[in-house]
Design brief:
The complex is a heterotrimer of chains A (272), B (268) and C (357).
Chain A lengths: L1 H30 L15 H8 L1 H34 L2 H16 L2 H15 L5 H26 L2 H9 L4 H30 L2 H6 L7 H8 L6 H27 L1 H14 L1
Helix pairs in contact in A: 1-11, 2-11, 3-6, 3-8, 4-6, 6-8, 7-8
Chain B lengths: L1 H28 L11 H8 L1 H33 L4 H9 L6 H12 L4 H8 L11 H26 L2 H9 L4 H29 L3 H5 L8 H11 L3 H31 L1
Chain C lengths: L1 H29 L5 E7 L5 H11 L2 E7 L2 H10 L6 E2 L3 H9 L34 E13 L23 E4 L2 H11 L9 H12 L5 E5 L3 H6 L5 E5 H10 L3 E4 L5 E8 L8 H12 L1 H11 L6 H6 L2 H4 L8 H4 L2 E2 L6 H18 L1
Parallel strand pairs in C: 1-2, 1-3, 5-6, 5-7, 9-10
Antiparallel strand pairs in C: 4-7, 4-8, 4-9
Helix pairs in contact in C: 5-6, 5-14, 6-14
């Protein structure tokens, strides 16, 4: 029975992963095509990779994009986690309105967000460029972090925190020793989601960027008029492989540190 | 207590600067017509025009369907992932595809779905004949769900991972079947994640715009498409903002509904 | 907790490394004078080799930023906060920018190479005397068809698109002005009409087209047509050229009864910071050798007569892209319409799209 159950789930999971990765495989395959567009495959070639490495403008854009994504999601995660803590502690009527305000940016279409940020930045006299893009990315990444962290906080039993205080923990100690470890998966999930939002954003970035600063999405969307260059496929392939390596690296590290990891898990389980 | 205040400051600052301020701006703009005169005409126009009302219904309907499809695919995925060794690794593999640019992936889907595309070639190969896949509701919903899956899997996975295994064991010990255990123990306990997922998927689905054109061929028009058009083509920011206000009100209603239930669920 | 902290420091470290890399790259490219020229253009709409050549010739550093539509570009320029030196809008946007005092009048003495431009592309209605703009590329609106699915003579005129044989086989460009232009031309009205009755009539006519309409899309039409997804499409000549390069069964027609002709133009915004370099750049792009090189790279039709001579005969003899004089005289440019009228176009178009379902 048990074994049978597992095999069905394996089939299901394989199916889901095939769907998730089908378009990516498609992109990767065409990055090696000697043709110019993503239709018929025209024989193997590394031409697009050569083009990519010769394109210093593109490389600058990639670095900019990654820098904004890493930094914005880090700041958003910190502020968002603090925000989730604040919402958790807030009283009932406040809680709901805070949560609703939190979600405003998630529902507003990007164009509206972008346009109103643009007006806002120019009103404040912020020079458009790296700083304005970073600030906007932090801004629209915060809500998703809150949404990821809050369920974890809600599951955290209040008695556990009380127990920490009873044992003489300061607020800081209670936070770092009890609360943060318990909600760490939510925080990490929030970070990854924020990173995703940041990497993928086009409309908001478009409006608030300026003075020569550009990100990958803006570049890709603006190129659509001329047809998407397979150089972009090559770039995406490289970025995909890099992130895959990162994930596998994470897997190996966590496997090696497996024992320690398990202890942490047990301790969390005990705590509940 | 002072420390507590310090926690709130950055978040509160964010709310004031990047949420309330744009919100006020949008509200303010929704009271101006295309020539910059103050008016209530935009709202009157929205409420009396059959085009906008139909569009609103359309958007809600499609968003509901997309959310449902996403949930149906994501819940079992999150559930199965949770039973795997190295589950964090597999979870990362679910998120990874979202790091590839959306427009690129959409173009890849065009390649996969087109008449001469990979899927039709496969169908022909298996003798099922070629079909019109693009510009159908099914393909539109599929791609929309594809985009949203990671945003649904993640919160559900997190809340499933939190469930104390002893509760499940206790349920079996008390003679519950697998299905009963799922319905009475696992499903209710994973509810916060499901709700977070629904919020993260339904609300943005209301304002989808790009894939409505690329995959849907503009046969599906959502509120997002209309806003896009008003802001960028017509330059009628007043009307665009009005629809934006409607969307935000819709979101407040949804938040109010799910938020209330969550409290009850949390206590029981 | 340890895990959280180490993750935190790892991210900080990555950020520092990226910032350093960014600095190094910037340093490398600044090199010379440190004076910059900022260009705001469509993506991939210039041969990058020309930018390098210009940088070498003048010692300026070129910042190249891109936009995806006239309207979003306009929103940004209008709002201020940026200082672009050269921008490349389409003709109706030039007119709008002129009206809103966003662009500076040009000093023709600083643009001696303007004499290479074919006179028929100068002094257009949207900018008399080319006081504000210099043509960059031009093109038309037309019909692209797949010869495996329809015969050429069935799609020479706009009215033929209504033929029931094209059921669910036609793709339209997602632009209110262009789709209405098709309908307006079939009823012999101006593509710039402000008469609501004529527009209503055009919409009525368009609604009868809906059984044939498969999709209303933008740039992605290229990919769709290349993949034989539909028999016929209404699109721009520039896009058509690219589709035909990929799929040799595709052909492009500019209906002789009339169509839209469009121009992308170089302008200098009022807020430009480095006007000297802007003039130098425009003049540089007008040089026949450079213009020809750019036309070869981008693939659109060049208004530069001297450059056209340098292009291969195969390109310039193609009637679809350099139409004969008797078609040329029926082509109309879009005029910038009052916002109210533009709103009517778009509302009627939105209704048409909803009807298409």
């Amino acid at each position: 029975m048990k074994k049978h159950h597992w095999s069905w789930s394996a089939i299901y999971l394989t199916f889901v992963f095939i769907i998730l990765y089908a378009p990516i495989v498609y992109l990767v395959v065409f990055s090696f095509s000697s043709g110019k567009t993503m239709e018929r495959y025209r024989g193997f070639s590394l031409q697009h990779y050569a083009d990519l490495f010769a394109d210093s403008r593109m490389i600058t854009i990639v670095i900019n994009t990654l820098l904004v994504a890493f930094l914005a999601s880090l700041l958003a995660t910190i502020i968002g986690t603090l925000g989730a803590l604040a919402i958790k502690d807030a009283r009932r009527p406040w809680k709901n309105s805070l949560l609703s305000l939190n979600n405003v940016l998630m529902v507003s279409p990007d164009v509206i967000i972008g346009a109103s940020f643009l007006i806002f930045f120019t009103m404040l006299g912020v020079r458009l460029g790296f700083v304005s893009v970073l600030l906007s990315h932090v801004a629209f990444c915060i809500p998703i972090v809150v949404l990821m962290v809050l369920p974890k906080l809600n599951e955290l039993s209040p008695t556990l925190v009380d127990a920490a205080y009873d044992l003489g923990a300061t607020r800081w100690q209670a936070l770092t020793r009890v609360i943060l470890p318990a909600i760490a998966p939510g925080i990490l999930a929030g970070y990854f989601m924020a990173f995703t939002y940041s990497l993928d954003d086009f409309a908001v970035t478009f409006f608030v960027t300026g003075n020569g600063f550009s990100t990958l999405s803006v570049e890709i969307y603006s190129r659509a008029r001329q047809g998407i260059d397979l150089e972009i496929n090559a770039l995406s392939t490289l970025m995909f492989i890099a992130s895959l390596l990162l994930v596998i690296g994470y897997y190996i590290i966590s496997k090696h540190g497996g024992r320690r990891h398990r202890i942490v898990v047990v301790r969390e389980g005990d705590a509940q | 207590m002072r420390q507590k205040a310090m926690f709130i400051v950055p978040y509160a600052l964010w709310i004031v600067l990047f949420v309330v301020a744009p919100l006020v701006l949008i509200l303010y703009q929704s009271f101006f017509d295309i020539n910059g005169h103050a008016t209530l005409g935009n709202y009157a126009n929205y409420l009396t025009s059959s085009v906008y009302l139909k569009m609103t219904l359309n958007s809600v309907w499609y968003a509901l369907l997309i959310t449902l499809v996403t949930l149906v695919i994501s819940y079992p995925t999150a559930y199965v992932l949770n039973h795997l060794p190295n589950k964090q690794f597999w979870l990362l593999l679910v998120i990874l595809p979202t790091w590839i640019n959306l427009l690129l992936k959409t173009y890849a889907f065009i390649g996969l779905f087109s008449r001469t595309g990979t899927i039709n070639q496969f169908l022909q190969f298996t003798g099922l004949g070629s079909h019109q896949l693009l510009f159908t509701d099914a393909s539109f919903m599929f791609v929309a769900a594809y985009i949203e899956i990671p945003f649904m899997v993640l919160p559900i996975f997190n809340s499933l991972a939190e469930i104390n295994p002893s509760l499940i064991n206790a349920s079996y010990d008390l003679g519950a079947t697998q299905w009963q255990t799922f319905r009475k123990v696992i499903w209710p306990l994973s509810m916060p994640g499901v709700k977070a997922g629904i919020q993260a998927v339904f609300i943005p689905s209301l304002s989808l715009f790009m894939i409505t054109r690329l995959i849907g061929g503009n046969r599906v028009i959502t509120l997002g498409t209309a806003i896009e058009e008003h802001f960028l083509t017509t330059q009628n920011w007043g009307m665009g903002s009005t629809i934006g206000v409607v969307l935000i009100i819709a979101m407040f209603i949804i938040m109010f509904m799910t938020g209330d239930k969550k409290q009850k669920g949390g206590r029981s | 907790m340890k895990k959280l902290f180490s993750a935190f420091f790892a991210v900080v470290l990555i950020c520092i490394l990226l910032a350093l890399g960014d600095l190094a790259l910037n340093h490398q490219s600044t090199g010379g004078s440190g004076k910059t020229l900022t260009i705001y253009n469509w993506g991939d709409y210039i041969d990058p080799a020309l930018i390098s050549k210009f940088e070498q010739q003048t010692g300026y550093r070129v910042d190249y930023e891109t936009f995806d539509s006239n309207e979003s570009m306009l929103t940004k320029i209008r709002q201020g906060g940026t200082n672009y030196d050269v921008v490349i809008p389409s003709e109706y946007t030039v007119q709008r920018m002129k009206k809103e005092h966003l662009i500076a009048p040009l000093d023709h003495r600083q643009l001696p190479n303007l004499r290479y431009i074919d006179p028929q592309f100068l002094n257009q209605a949207f900018d008399r005397g080319n006081r504000y703009s210099v043509p960059y590329f031009w093109g038309t609106l037309g019909i692209i068809y797949n010869d495996q699915k329809v015969t050429g003579k069935d799609v020479q005129h706009w009215e033929q698109l209504w033929n029931p044989r094209l059921k669910n086989n036609l793709m339209l460009i997602d632009s209110a002005r262009d789709v209405f232009a098709v309908a307006l031309i079939t009823q012999h009205d101006s593509v710039n009409t402000t008469d609501y009755q004529q527009l209503k009539l055009a919409q009525h006519h368009l609604k009868q087209l809906t059984p044939n309409v498969k999709a209303i899309i933008a740039d992605e039409m290229k990919m769709y047509m290349e993949q034989d997804e539909a028999a016929v499409g209404v699109t721009y000549s520039g896009d058509a050229r690219e589709m035909m390069n990929i799929n040799h069964h595709l052909h492009y027609v500019v209906p002789s009864e009339g169509s839209n002709i469009w121009f992308d133009n170089m302008v200098i915004p009022k807020a430009a910071r480095n006007k000297t370099a802007a003039y130098q750049f425009i003049n540089f792009m007008l040089e026949p050798g450079n213009a020809a090189q750019n036309a070869k790279y981008v693939g659109y039709a060049t208004p530069n007569a001297a450059a056209k001579k340098q292009l291969p005969k195969k390109i310039t003899a193609d009637k679809a892209f350099y139409p004969p004089a008797n078609t040329m005289k029926h082509l109309q440019t879009y005029r910038d319409l009052p916002l109210r009228v533009l709103g009517e176009y778009n509302d009627l178009f939105l209704e048409f799209k909803m009807f298409a379902k």
